[in-house]
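From the pipeline queue, job 12 of 40. The input is one protein chain; the requested action is below.

Action: predict structure.
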Amino acid sequence: MRPSVPSLVDLLAEWLPTQRWFAGKNRPIHEISIGTATALLPGDPGLHHLVLDVRQDGQVEQYQLLLGLRRDLPERLRAAEVGWLALDAGAQDGTGNYKDAAHAFDAAHDPELARCLLAYMADDAVVGPLRFRRVPGADLNTGLAPAVATAEQSNTSLIFGDEYICKLFRKLSPGVNPDLEVNLALTKLGCAHVAGVYGWIELEANGRESATVALLSEYLRTGTDGWKLAVTSVRDWFAQPHYTLSPDQGVGAAGGDFAGEAERLGEATATVHQDLAEAFGKAEMPPEHVHTMAARMHEQLDEVRANVPGIEPYAEAIGATFSALGQWSRPLPVQRVHGDYHLGQVMRTETGWVLLDFEGEPARSPVERREPSHPLRDVAGMLRSFEYAARFLHMTGPRTPPEAERELELRARAWVARNRAAFCRGYASAGGPDPDAHETLLRALEFDKAVYEVRYEAANRPSWLPVPLRSLAHLTE
């Protein structure tokens, strides 16, 4: 009797839930099938583009995987291994070994194989259902080898030298990905606060609507991640001796004060919002649609209350804010916005702030991601990110005595207050809707984002759950 050999889908069923970018980690996988399989580089080593149809809770979601096959797997690729795969389970030699077997692995981590993506884009190649596209006039340097970006993401980004970054969209949705759609439009407008687009890859298969699977854009080699800058500022503030600076004063005197950058970021955000309005237009949401939006906020809150008990002490105050929005009585100006705006989506370069990742919130549907919204939705997202930055070190560091806990929380609030005010001041001064004049709307949008964060962290990063909950404790006081 031949030994049982795991199939590729068996291996994937164990491997997928361990991946940061897999959105269904908190739900059982009922079935995996291969939607499309395209040989990009046949042979050994080989590269195959797979679209995985993953069934969970009666729904099928699609994920993309660059599957590498090597009979001898180098040590540098061991961490990316999916498993040992018998390509022909029925063909054994005299010793009982399979004649055609290989190590299957995530080839995004293999520069020898993944570099072909750039060459295919440069040639506007068509390989099976995959269409590789280059922006007209873009002259791509195909001699660069990629390296996987180390930042934790819902997608996987490959950095080619110091020139390009190629984002592989792991979870696929029908139609043009909003990140491509928005960045292309803003690139054509000459927006100074986005990275230029050079190319993309789309999939057309099985009679389905085409889907964007990758986006190639300018790599901001001089850029520094906004989250890192903000957290460094918080660390400097927390390190000040309590007898030198009290929690309610002096945060601006601490080393690494972030308020100046927060104000400039507000200005850049308002400029991009104006460009988005020019590229995609403006509209007005009638009051009854605002009421529907408030009802959706209530629904999400009810769902999270049913699954995350920690939100319960703040639910009444959050719900009251949503109810106040439900009384809205005038048209609401709306337009295309970023949709998932936070400090991790911006970079500070030599020439100013640059906004990234216009894909929208990972847990939202494609339709929801494209829905016009009031620009203050993005402002609310950034204000929430300041709350995160102020408490990240506190929550993820070593446990501290109760008295020190109280002081750190007071310091966190002081840092947040200073940078919230600076960002809103810069945003209003550059022509954005004044946050101070839209208190009910902004508060509802910020609470809606906070509830989403609680839902997301509970499902994907439970160790981070105290971060949004602690911020709600003071926002609902």
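Job complete. The radius of gyration is 24 Å.
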